[in-house]
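#onboarding

Welcome to the new folks! Below is a worked example of what a typical request in this channel looks like: someone posts a single protein sequence, and someone else replies with the predicted structure as tokens. Don't worry about understanding the tokens yet, we'll cover that in week two.

Example request:
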Amino acid sequence: MAITFHAQVNEDDLFRFNMRHTYTSFSGIGSIVAGILIFTIAGVMHERLGTENVVLYCILATLFLLYTPIHLKLRAKTVMAMDSPLSRGMTFRLEDEGLAIETAVAGEDDQNQAFLPYQQIYRVSLTKQDLLIYTSRKNAYVVPRRDVEDQLDDIIEVFRSKLDSYRLSI
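Example response:
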């Protein structure tokens, strides 16, 4: 029954995961609402505020809307530039008892290994571009669909048989 697959996460995959995680939370949605609200105030009250204040309001609104994506893009670039397990790829093996994960160790022939029993998997989500295996509300293994497209049906079937339906977003 063991299904083995390799995942190579790139900068765009990591950025996309972080954007999804950020903008599905209260703080991400709040920053968008704040930016739009500040733009609206600047537009509605432009006569009372004066040109200088309208420009300041527009700059502030732009910061609310652009800071988070720029920060997340730079962070993804930094993480991928470091010699991290993400940049070297991971090998996953679905076994009867759980998920075995192996990552290459920098400069060595050895592998770092971890085992995640199925009952410790928080959630499994399938998006347009990724298979996300969550170990907690915030942390997930990102498996790009392009790396598992030919095995995706088998992988989903294993997760369906091993996890409760409320832990699946497929």
